[in-house]
Amino acid sequence: MLDRTYLRATIGVLVCGLAAATASAQPWDYTEGHVDKALRYEHGQLRWVYMFDSGAVLDGTPVPSAGTIFETDQVVTVVPEFREIASPFDIPFLGVQVDDPIWTLPPNFVPGVPELGFDTGNLVATDWSGKMTLSLESVSGPGEFAIWQTTGPGQFVHYWSSLEPYNTPFEAFVPDHTHFSMGFTAPGYYQVELKVLGTLVGGQEISGINTFTFRVEPVPFLPGDANLDGVVDDLDLAIVQANFGQLVSGWSDGDFTGDGRVSLRDAFILSENYSPISMTMIPEPVSLAVLGLGALVLMGRSVR
Length: 304
Fold this sequence. Notes:
Layout: E1 2-3, H1 4-22, E2 28-42, E3 45-52, E4 57-58, E5 61-62, E6 68-70, E7 75-79, E8 84-86, E9 101-105, E10 114-119, E11 132-140, E12 145-152, E13 155-161, E14 170-172, E15 177-179, E16 181-184, E17 188-199, E18 205-216, H2 234-243, H3 264-272, E19 281-282, H4 288-302
Parallel strand pairs: 2-7, 2-10, 7-18
Antiparallel strand pairs: 1-19, 2-3, 2-4, 3-6, 4-5, 8-9, 9-16, 10-15, 11-14, 11-17, 12-13, 12-16, 17-18
């Protein structure tokens, strides 16, 4: 039997360089201000990005320059707890009835809340024939998700919804810029996969798919507590180690982001609340690769 604390220290020395190099993989929290889900066409690829306006808040710091670009896997959009309301209306495309709880992002600026728009203004209009088709491909999370525009009290024009009968692609001009309301029916992490389809002048179709992450607060479970025992410890670390890099079914397998796999993002979430069990003994033989993940988590925590 080997002392796990000793092994962590030993393997930590071996992987500290890797941990420092991968610490930047942790996404940043976007909490306030105007940001567009913008389309870009580069090197023959059409993709979504986050385009920040100056003053939008990322990890507690206002972004200094308008037009700052982040990839979709670098950012988590945070829906704050105070955005929870009892719905004043039935909203069929969210599966919501009067007085059911919903969390919303508004289409306009509200202090302390993300203001997300959709933008095609970075595309060159003369490169494209017709409009862009924007569609919701999939949603994973603890509840339902939808976007809509409100035309009057209790009157909505819905577009995307995780409830399949209500999920409708829509078209956008090039250039175009618009805002929608967004709604969620439960707290937790959501992965929202969006697709864009456009046709170049000459007839070639180009498509792109990217995934956006939302965190609706309060997160119902302690982040990283895979076995739901109220503490993030070696037992949870072992679950993440066992499933690292694999497709899994959910939270209990170490998938804290809801994207269907266990990755470095899940390991960093675990590290936020990690409390090791001191002097835990583990059986031999010990897998160097598995222990390496544990050390990486610990090192990632130390460099924050």
